[in-house]
Design a protein that fits this description.
This is Tryptophan synthase beta chain-like PALP domain-containing protein. The structure is a single chain. By secondary structure, this protein is mostly helical. The protein has a domain at 33-99: Rossmann fold, CATH 3.40.50.1100. Helices cover 35% and strands 0% of the residues. Helix 1 packs across helix 2.
């Protein structure tokens, strides 16, 4: 492990704030697992044809969790922004050998 928050999810789990977050205002954070990100990415690929990277898959995990914990219910929508693909991480995140 490189640090206490080592993860296969690119860009997540680092123990520092990058410069672009120094002035950001946010209302919370959550903990997710690598397994949740992997399962979500494969679910979205299989069921929706979305080829997402690990951090975007985690973004979707958070959207689902939010809808459940806030009891959003039928007739409402939860939106998340998907702005990338997994093409640059094929050798890791979508590799069964690497994941094992």
């Amino acid at each position: 492990m490189k640090n206490p928050f080592d993860t296969i999810t690119e860009g997540l789990g680092i123990n520092r704030l990058s410069q672009n977050f120094m002035t950001a205002k946010f209302d919370g954070a959550f903990k997710g697992t690598d397994l949740e990100a992997v399962e979500m990415s494969w679910f979205l690929l299989k069921n929706d044809g979305l080829f997402l990277g690990s951090s975007l898959a985690m973004n979707c995990v958070r959207a689902i969790r939010h809808s459940v914990t806030q009891s959003i219910g039928p007739g409402h929508s939860v939106v998340t922004i998907i702005c990338d693909t997994e093409i640059s991480h094929l050798s890791k995140f979508y590799s069964a050998e690497y994941l094992s």
